[in-house]
Amino acid sequence: WNAAPSSPAPAGSRPSRSRGSSIRSPGTPTAPCAPTGTRAPTTSSPWTRSRRWRRSSRNCTACVSRRPSTSSPPAGSPTSASPTRASSAWSPRPGSGVPNSPPSTAASTSGTTGRPRRSCWSTNADTPTSLVEAASPQWFWMEERFPGADQWNSLHERLVDAWKKQAGLLPPGSPLYFAHSSADELGEDLMTVAYLKETAEQAGLATEWLSMEEIGWDRLSGRFVDNGLRFIRSIFKLYPWEWLTTDRFAGHVLDTLDNGGGTGTTLWIEPAWKMLLSNKALLAILWELYPGHPNLLPAHLDGPRELADTTGWVAKPLLGREGAGVTLHEPGTDPVLRDEPCCYQQLAPLPTFDGNHVVLGAWVVEDESAGLGIRESSGPVTDEYARFLPHVIL
């Protein structure tokens, strides 16, 4: 998540782009939403639990500007260090180009607190939803509506380049599978996986469709297989690690994990260490390591502490997504602790424009800032109903 962003291309010198021009729905029999096929007696499906898929908190790095619709991230803005997705600021990455982290993305929401100060609200390095909107539609919107303008957006090109650079780290002789949960009710996860699959194909990689519910476990070989009983050597999953590690076959995931050292049989993208960077406990750890940092908000794990009497606080579940379980508390409110593990962060209301609460998000690809996404919501908590707002640099 940490590298100085490159400057956007000057206005009038746009590169030629093919942004998802051939995104297509998966065909049978391997469509992500297709019903699980008949399996041999030696296999079973690890992910048959029925649950409603909640979209992830999506965008990344520390906030960009007080006027979210017209500014690009300043040079030196903290960014993510994952190859394909945006991520949070100041997060350590265990080495550059490690084999178990091919093009990965991460995201963190951020904004201003009514002052010129830019503050990081949260991060997500695991599930890159809203990537489609940030990478493709808002670029086409700008080209059609403001052909002479620019945009902080090089996501598509950087994703394709990242897949090319990391191709040699993928297990040979096997396609890269792309999977999401068929419990997705809105179709956003399907389109996100479709777009990432498209970028991998443009990089020359062989790919296949699969849903999480179609993944099988072969008891004879001790390996994960697809619905045709072929071994799954590498897979991008739009499925949170906190679910993957608590599902029925979580033990098999960890026992067969390919960490790039040739000791496992399945390489998962995003890699397992991304779960740490998507845990909101990271916000409290960052504040402990860098107290008073101008781009951080005070945050604690054992309660609101001084925030209860000063600024007020926000209680956030450590693994919550899309604003689920987030509660806001004004100063002077009794500091009641939640039953579930939470991060207690300083209350910093989002800026509002015409009644819309605005949050900024920056994406990082291969250690460099690669794009900006803006979302606005009707309430003070950004949730799954937030609207994506394209931006332009005039």
Identify the notable features of this structure and list them briefly.
2 domains; 20% strand; 394 residues; 16% helix; 4-stranded parallel sheet; disordered N terminus; globular; alpha+beta
What features would you describe in this structure?
By secondary structure, the protein is α+β, with helices and mostly antiparallel strands. The protein folds into 2 domains: 43-278 and 352-389, no CATH class; 298-346, no CATH class. Helix content is 16%, strand content 20%. It contains 8 helices and 17 strands. Strands 2, 3, 14, 15, 16 and 17 form a 6-stranded antiparallel sheet that branches. Strands 5-4-8-9 form a 4-stranded parallel sheet, covered by helices on one side. The chain has a 4-stranded antiparallel sheet with strand order 10-13-11-12, covered by helices on one side. A hairpin with a 4-residue loop joins β6 and β7. α3 packs across α4. The longest helix has 15 residues, at 188-202. It is globular, with a radius of gyration of 21 Å. The two termini are 27 Å apart. The model is unreliable at 1-17 and 20-102 (pLDDT under 50).
Summarize the structure.
With 394 residues, the protein is α+β, with helices and mostly antiparallel strands. It has helices spanning 131-135, 137-145, 155-166, 188-202, 241-244, 250-255, 274-277, 281-289; strands at residues 43-44, 107-112, 118-124, 176-180, 207-211, 216-218, 223-225, 234-238, 267-269, 299-300, 313-317, 327-329, 342-346, 352-353, 356-365, 368-377, 387-389. GO terms for molecular function: ATP binding; ligase activity; metal ion binding.
